[in-house]
Amino acid sequence: MHRLQNLVRLHRLGKRKRQIARQLKMSPNTERAYRQAFDRAEVLYGDPTKLPELEELKQAVVEQLPPKLSP
Prior knowledge:
Elements (H helix, E strand, L loop, with lengths): L2 H10 L4 H8 L3 H13 L13 H11 L7
Helix pairs in contact: 1-2, 2-3, 3-4
């Protein structure tokens, strides 16, 4: 399972935000950015056994998060 799918699954299971970040080995800021993008795309809630496809999650991230500019 990909980290993005796992983030959605853990959130749907009711895990705490910091616990999710720690378990997925990502910073709390990164977890929050992904969570907010998924929330706006309306894929964050639902059945934890029926996860969105990885491509759908990647598309939500691309659409909801602005691209990072290189220095």
